[in-house]
């Protein structure tokens, strides 16, 4: 972290990996045309999804360097301050009593929907296995259905995406916070945000404990940058230490590497229904084993800066096959038949 007064650039280093550039590597280095920071050719814009010739600015300009004190607009939002410090925060989707009642009813409806969607995907996969020997395993995954650890599934469909959008579109506090986190870059380079993905994580009872991981790398080992991607989790059942997500606060920051490993403490946020969990792509975390006797469905979306492309978690090369799920399996046929019955009466 730097202060607002530190304007002098570091010695001749690569601003991605932090290695000093010698006379040989300096000649082949790429220099940002906006801020004049230097990068190894292999480091410049790596892991961003941007071609090296597509833009003239570096990740420091595209994201913005974190400086203390934060700008007043960020200081006024305590959730944004906590997010930048810890790498995550929990935010209410609605503070209006009437709206919250409707929200809780909607979350219960979507919980039932998520169970139906999971059963539809699983049934479709089992049907594929019956008729073909070339079906990918769920571990290797489909573009819309995969197993991320024993008993932990990811589902992606247009139905789920619409439901996620309906939950988030009215939450002004959430979008205001995302605006602060994802659009604070230098006035010289101002990038908008976009929704990159949406889906459902479905954890069965007894699901495995995930390995500690980040969803994306730090884009600079020299200075802390503002986030380039933020995950938004919307639990459809309450989250706690029996089924939630464990985080290592501050692990997205450069200073984390200098902390004694024995002093690195984790936290498991409690998330009641009606709340959302926002966390940085770079923060260390893992999904806990589901110790409850019922599934743990969680809707999610990932909001990113407009230039960012995740070519690992959502790679077409990695997930080449799409599982065909018949629409009739996804539909609420009981609800549809009830509506038709009311029309005829």
Automatic annotation (TrEMBL):
Residues 1-58 form the Phorbol-ester/DAG-type domain. CDD domains: PHD_SF (cd15489). Gene3D superfamilies: q2cbj1_9rhob like domain. It comes from the Eukaryota. It comes from Trypanosoma theileri. This is ADP-ribosylation factor-like protein 3A.
């Amino acid at each position: 972290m730097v202060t607002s007064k530190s304007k002098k650039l570091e010695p001749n280093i690569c601003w991605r990996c932090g290695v000093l550039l010698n006379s040989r590597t300096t000649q082949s280095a790429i220099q940002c045309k906006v801020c004049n920071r230097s990068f190894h050719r292999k480091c410049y814009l790596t892991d961003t999804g941007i071609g090296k010739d597509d833009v003239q600015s570096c990740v420091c300009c595209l994201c913005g360097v974190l400086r203390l004190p934060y700008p007043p607009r960020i200081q006024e939002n305590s959730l944004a301050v906590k997010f930048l410090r810890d790498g995550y925060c929990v935010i209410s989707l609605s503070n209006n009593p009437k709206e919250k009642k409707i929200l809780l009813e909607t979350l219960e409806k979507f919980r039932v929907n998520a169970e139906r969607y999971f059963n539809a995907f699983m049934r479709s996969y089992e049907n594929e296995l019956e008729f073909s020997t070339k079906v990918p395993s769920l571990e290797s995954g489909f573009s819309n259905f995969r197993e991320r650890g024993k008993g932990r599934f990811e589902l992606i469909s247009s139905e789920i995406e619409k439901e996620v959008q309906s939950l988030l579109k009215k939450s002004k506090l959430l979008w205001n916070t995302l605006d602060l986190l994802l659009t604070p870059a230098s006035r010289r380079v101002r990038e908008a945000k976009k929704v990159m993905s949406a889906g459902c994580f479905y954890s069965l009872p007894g699901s495995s404990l995930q390995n500690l991981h980040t969803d994306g790398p730090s884009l600079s080992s020299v200075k802390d940058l503002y986030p380039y991607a933020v995950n938004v989790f919307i639990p459809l059942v309450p989250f706690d230490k029996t089924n939630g997500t464990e985080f290592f606060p501050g692990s997205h920051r450069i200073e984390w590497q200098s902390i004694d490993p024995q002093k690195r403490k984790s936290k498991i946020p409690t998330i009641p229904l009606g709340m959302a969990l926002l966390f940085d792509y770079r923060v260390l975390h893992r999904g806990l084993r589901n110790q409850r006797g019922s599934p743990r469905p969680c809707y999610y979306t990932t909001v990113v800066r407009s230039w960012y492309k995740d070519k690992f978690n959502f790679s077409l090369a990695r997930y080449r096959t799409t599982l065909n799920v018949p629409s009739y399996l996804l539909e609420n046929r009981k609800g549809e038949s009830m509506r038709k019955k009311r029309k005829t009466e």
